[in-house]
Design brief:
It contains no helices and eleven strands. It is mainly beta.
Length: about 120
């Protein structure tokens, strides 16, 4: 999966996609790799109605984020200031990183430096 926990993503389809003037972005809270879904902070919020019990004698409504499909988001590039497609490449020291296909800037390391992939 090309998205990791803590990444900033832009929602491109669905109810929370926004319009072209104000795209919706958020930080990834959890990855559900077996279902190919992610949970994004502030996106796809629902209300869970709780009955009164010993822990919360009042009961009430609890707001929480629900998972969305990974195909509905793009990784956010800070230099382009929008969601972009990404590629993977090896740096000179052999570390693997993600990069923006639009501007070419690095978007974070995937693996540590390995001598096998270092340029000689």
């Amino acid at each position: 999966m090309h998205i990791h926990k803590g990444d900033v993503v832009e929602v491109i389809t669905g109810d929370d996609s926004g319009n072209n003037a104000s795209p919706t972005t958020g930080r990834v809270l959890r990855i559900l790799s077996d279902k190919n879904k992610i949970v994004v902070e502030g996106i796809n919020k629902v209300w869970k109605h709780m009955k009164p019990n010993r822990r919360s004698p009042q009961g009430g409504r609890l707001s929480k984020e629900m998972p969305i499909s990974v195909s509905n988001v793009l990784l956010y590039c800070a230099t382009c200031r929008r969601g972009v497609r990404i590629g993977k490449r090896y740096k000179d020291d052999g570390a693997k990183e993600r990069f923006c296909k639009k501007c070419g800037s690095g978007l974070g390391l995937i693996s540590k430096a390995r001598a096998r992939y270092a340029k000689k």
